[in-house]
Amino acid sequence: MRFWKKSMLSVLTVILSVSLAACGTAKPAAEGTTAGENTSAGANTANPLAGKKIALIMQINLGTFSAQYIEGVKEQVEKLGGKVTVTPADGDLAKMSSNLDAAINQKVDGILIDHGTAEALEAGVRKAIERKIPVVAFDGDINVPGVTVLQQDDAKMAEATLERLASDIGGKGNIVKIWVAGFAPMERRQIAYKAFQDKYKDIKEVAAFGAASQNTALDTQAQMEAILKKYPNKGDIAAVWASWDEFAKGAARAIQQAGRTEIKVYGIDMSDEDLQMIQDPNSPWIASSAVDPKDIGRIQVRYLYQKLHGDQTPDKVVLEPVFVARDQLPKEQISTAQLSEHVKGWGNSQQGYTDWLKAAETPAAK
User: What is the superkingdom listed in this entry's lineage (predicted)?
Assistant: First the structure.
């Protein structure tokens, strides 16, 4: 009899366990989701930050450098299961400020800023921080507690190209500077240019111009053509220093079309289009100093997700540039994705890439 009671008790225990397990698998979906969504969310527990909405607020989206920078941003956000919305302001700082306010009001999870000024953005950035929306800026003149600002080592980029220019022309000759005020990186590059002028007294600036527009390369080309007419003789101009790749493109095209390829161009920044021009033996653009634009986008996103994760991040992150000259490159055309095979230090930066970030990337991204 005792044996029978024990047996019945064991059977009842098993039946109860199976019933409870069945109830667990049939757990109702959370409000606003389906059972299928719950299952997929459970499968993504490795990344608690999946599904974040990220806003990229840009002062200007122009040229292949910006295009590759955006690619880097999108690539890293998507690897982490998020979605990014890109909003350029076409150079209009008031519009950029309005775009920032709109992103805050839309309650995005994180904000990336590309360029901009303190006057236009700091009020909006402070509002975002107050609302617990993390912000990471690139080359923006922003000084708000809690915001991480990325910048290229602009002084080093300018120095590298200017020193190569000075060496190539023997420390003397006339040069043209193409530069524009109103951008934080440009102001830092100008400081290096002033130091260069103080160092090389026999190198004379005979012309200086530059403006950022939706047709910067084309406008620069037209202005350079006018300067070449003003200085028509071989030897009148030894070189051109361009503080932005859009300037270098326009200047190089004008010089090449005028048949004045004794004038060499030294630029800053690098994209696939830029690299193609530098590799062209008929192009006057022979060297540039840059950080991989895709890396800039990736690194900026990594620091934003660190903030979303609750990690401490530095106030300022400096990105190390690489000097690229034609004499370092093969004759066959390559892309910036292949540049690391020929130029040490280019691309594939691990900066800001924590172990937990790597682990959080979606299986498809890996």
Answer: Bacteria
Asked if residues 217 and 66 have their Cβ atoms less than 8 Å apart, the reply is no
Residue 336 lies in a domain: no
Tell whether 219 and 315 lie within a shared domain.
no
In tens, the pLDDT along 124-179 reads 999 999 999 999 999 988 999 999 999 999 999 999 999 999 999 999 999 999 99
CA-CA-CA-CA dihedral for 177, 120, 149, 195, to nearest 10: 30
Same domain for 274 and 240? yes
Same domain, 286 and 158: yes
Q: Which amino acid is at 129?
A: I
The full 3-state SS of the chain, as one line of letters, equals CHHHHHHHHHHHHHHHHHHHHHHHHCCCCCCCCCHHHHHHHHHCCCCCCCCCEEEEEECCCCHHHHHHHHHHHHHHHHHCCCEEEEEECCCCHHHHHHHHHHHHHCCCCEEEEECCCHHHHHHHHHHHHHCCCCEEEECCCCCCCCCEEEEECHHHHHHHHHHHHHHHCCCCEEEEEECCCCCHHHHHHHHHHHHHHHHCCCEEEEEEECCCCCCHHHHHHHHHHHHHHHCCCCCCCCEEEECCHHHHHHHHHHHHHCCCCCCEEEEECCCHHHHHHHHCCCCCEEEEEECCHHHHHHHHHHHHHHHHHCCCCCCEEEECCEEEEHHHCCCCCCCCCCHHHCCCCCCCCCCCCCHHHHHHCCCCCC
For residue 334, being part of any structural domain is answered with no
Domain that holds residue 214: 154-290
At 207, give phi and psi (nearest 5°).
-160, 145
pTM, 2 dp: 0.81
Within-domain flag for 44 = no
Domain check: are 214 and 225 in the same one? yes
